[in-house]
Amino acid sequence: MKLITAIIQPHRLDDVKKELYAAEVNLVTVSEALGHGRQLGVDEFYRGIKETGNLLRKIRLDIAVNEEFVERTIAAVIKGARTGKIGDGKIFVTELTRCIRIRTGEEGPKAIG
Fold first, then answer.
1. According to the CATH classification, is domain 2-112 in 3.30.70.120?
2. How many Å apart are CA 61 and CA 4, to the nearest integer?
3. Alpha carbon of 14 to those of 5, 64, 93: distances in Å?
4. What whole-number distance in Å separates Cα of residue 41 and Cα of residue 52?
């Protein structure tokens, strides 16, 4: 089991979700985030509004997957999020040591689905 965390541009969320659904990855947690990478001081445009400063609006996706879904999940995020410009984001893949479905008490790969 892996936890895939992706930091993407807010305006790419719909495209990423579309690609995830096409890859049969349906379980995702989405949250708003603030942050910056190497683009310190670079102006960004979000929905026609210029943003300047250290912390830029981002979207964080947390996706728990079983081993057979890792590569297709990564590929889907890249396909949906990539613009080729600075600030496209990052993907982090970490080991998920335990997962428990609260409703049933199931653990491990069965809990992820």
1. yes
2. 8
3. 17, 19, 21
4. 7
The pTM (predicted TM-score) of the whole model is 0.85
pLDDT digits (tens, 9 = 90+) for 73-103: 999 999 999 999 888 999 999 999 999 999 9
pLDDT in tens, 34-63: 887 776 656 666 677 766 667 788 999 999
* CB burial readout 12-40, b (16+ within 10 A) else e: beebbbebbeebebeebeeeeeeeeeeee
Q: Domain extents for the chain?
A: 2-112
CA dist 53 and 58 (Å) reads 13
The tokens describing 88, both together, are 């496209």
CA 97/CA 26 separation, integer angstroms: 21
CA 94 – CA 46 distance, rounded (Å): 30
